[in-house]
Specification:
Chain A: This is Electron transfer flavoprotein subunit alpha/FixB family protein. The complex is a heterodimer of chains A (325) and B (246). By secondary structure, chain A is an alpha/beta fold. Helix content of chain A is 27%, strand content 28%. In chain A, the strands form 4 sheets. Chain A has a 7-stranded parallel beta sheet, sandwiched between helices. Chain B is globular, with a radius of gyration of 21 Å. Classes of the chains: A alpha/beta (325), B alpha/beta (246).
Chain lengths: 325, 246
């Protein structure tokens, strides 16, 4: 047996979530006294590929096929499944990213494997039982899931496992398989990726605002604070429903769940649906003029005050902190 | 004439406080209101728009026991043409996808939509598993779907942006916000839902590959540490020295 990790890249670069998944997969390989093999698909330079060794990959399989330059769900799933079979991997680890969430179920079917998606901790292996803790009820709870199949797929939630450096560089081998035309019927027409912004699911700090901001014209302050902190911006459901901010920023039970190190909520009262999406944040800061806002009950730090008065002072304080740091 | 299948789940209302029984092994359904999964509502709304004006049919399918009929009737009231319930407890995503795939093999559709995930187990797996089982393309999380004669254009969410794809019918897609606005059933819809066909199909046997062993709830947080409104510098200091997150 061995462990296979799919090292996802964005425009040729590996992201922090990929290194998290690698570190996690390395720990699983160690648990089972076996080796970790990484597979990269697409256009990634050799020195970038070798970096995967730093986080525990003993070998990197590089699939550099022009047709596989961009993510094609079906084709990528076929390649990863073939790599798992060719290398005797019975555990496949991927990131629970937007693409990963398309891959995991297809891999599960291809490899007759149980799938644990949104994993937040290392598996426990006791007496032949293999269990994984994963998010459930949109952040309101966790489920401990036993994977009863021989092969297993685990999709690791972002910000759930610390990046650990454990090696040096890894040898890179080309891995080529025959692709079938029927895997390529979906055609990519355009990819739009904001390169100057921190992506919300991966962000270590999130600055989020609600109706308390009164209108989209007041988001300059939120953007400024986020930029200073290297944070992603987010919002509550009423804000995205009103079209003040895009749906992709909506955090909560029916938006996306985030788990940053720091979540700053400004002018958000804290409805149960919103709290579900942020409950696994490590530290929560709430700024709200209503001292009775339910959000304060789940906050670590709070300021009771009007956002329009607190925010300029907070921005100034962060600038001062950055200047002195 | 477009034939669309929308896969729906019966889930606890979004306001539900989640608790467990039997030594944290069972979800406590006592007093819980069940609803049509919010993302499935979006998928259903788009399916109805795409077939508007007699331009096709929308079938909803659910894997569940008889207690999900109210949610299925709600989908019919919103505007689905007919409904299928595969009579079984939905063990996990694999079980659900397998059952639906068997039905679709016997009753093909041009387009199969699901919600991006269910708000209870958050797997987002059924769309991809269906795609694999039926050898069809799948897109896991879409935020826009436009249909032409033989293919659709969809926008898929990616970290920090979007991807635009064209996909020939038939295919499977998981719908998120942006695809459509949920529809509220009107009185005519509610009346007609009672008489629209709801076919109950027996489940087929399939080997499970996952089991939920137990549940945990997030650890409660301590008392909030309040900082004076005129002193945000104190907050910055605490975040740096105390919480160590900046």
């Amino acid at each position: 047996m061995s462990v296979l990790i799919y090292a996802e890249n964005a425009a040729g670069k590996f992201k922090k979530s990929t290194f998290e998944a690698l570190s996690y997969a390395k720990a699983i390989a160690d648990q089972n006294s076996t080796n970790l093999i990484a597979i990269s698909i697409g256009d990634v330079a050799n020195d970038e590929l070798a970096v995967l060794g730093k986080y525990g990959a003993e070998k990197v399989l590089n699939v550099a096929n022009d047709k596989l330059k961009n993510f094609v769900n079906q084709a990528y799933a076929s390649v990863i499944a073939e790599a798992a079979k060719a290398n005797g991997a019975d555990i496949v680890v991927i990131s629970n990213s937007f693409s990963g969430r398309g891959l995991a179920p297809r891999l599960g079917v291809k490899l007759d494997a149980g799938v644990a998606d949104g994993a937040v901790a290392l598996p426990e292996q006791n007496g032949g039982k293999f269990t994984v803790k994963k998010t459930a009820f949109s952040g309101k709870a966790f489920a401990i899931v036993e994977l009863t199949s021989q092969n297993k797929i685990i999709a690791l939630a972002p910000n759930a496992y610390k990046v650990v450096e454990s090696g040096t560089t890894a040898p890179v081998e080309d891995f080529n398989i025959e692709t079938k035309a029927s895997d390529f019927t979906a055609m990519i027409k355009d990819i739009v990726r904001a390169t100057d912004k921190v992506s919300l699911p991966d962000a270590e700090i999130v600055v989020s605002a609600g109706r308390g901001l009164k209108g989209p014209e007041n988001w300059d302050m939120i953007e400024e604070l986020a930029d200073l902190l290297g944070a992603a911006t987010a919002c509550s459901k009423p804000v995205s429903d009103s079209g003040w901010r895009p749906h992709s920023e909506h955090v909560g039970q029916t938006g996306i769940a985030v788990s940053p190190n720091l979540y700053i909520a400004i002018g958000i009262s804290g409805a149960i649906q919103h709290l579900a999406g942020v409950s696994s944040s490590k530290v929560i800061v709430v700024i709200n003029k209503d001292a009775e806002a339910p959000f304060f009950k789940v906050a670590d730090y709070g300021i009771v005050g009007d956002a329009f008065e607190v925010l300029p002072k907070l921005i100034a304080a962060v600038k001062e902190y950055k200047a002195s740091a | 004439m477009m034939k669309i299948l929308v896969c729906i789940s019966n889930v606890p209302d979004t306001t539900t406080k989640i608790t467990f029984t039997d030594n944290n092994t069972q979800f406590n359904t006592n007093g819980v209101q069940f609803i049509l999964n919010p993302w499935d509502e979006i998928a259903l709304a788009r399916a109805i728009e795409l077939t508007d004006g007699g331009n096709g049919t929308v079938t909803v399918i659910n894997v569940g026991e008889a207690n999900t009929d109210a949610t299925i009737r709600k989908a019919l009231a919103i505007g689905a043409t007919d409904a299928v319930r595969i009579n079984a407890k939905p063990h996990d995503a694999w079980f659900v996808a397998y059952q639906i795939a068997q039905y679709v093999k016997a009753n093909p559709f041009d387009l199969i939509l699901t919600g991006k995930e269910s708000i209870d187990y958050n797997g987002s797996k059924v769309a991809g598993m269906l795609g694999e089982l039926l050898d069809l393309p799948s897109v896991s999380i879409i935020k826009k779907l436009d249909a032409a004669d033989t293919e659709a254009t969809v926008e898929r969410e990616i970290e920090g942006g979007k991807e635009v794809l064209t996909i020939p019918f038939p295919f499977v897609a998981g719908c998120a916000e942006g695809v459509a606005e949920p529809k509220i059933p009107n009185m005519r819809g509610i009346m007609s839902a009672r008489t629209k066909p709801l076919t109950v199909v027996e489940a087929v046997e399939v080997q499970n590959n996952s089991e939920i062993v137990s549940f945990e709830t997030p650890a409660p947080r301590g008392q909030v540490n309040l900082v004076a409104a005129d002193d945000p510098a104190k907050l910055v200091e605490l975040l740096h020295t105390h919480a160590r997150v900046i």
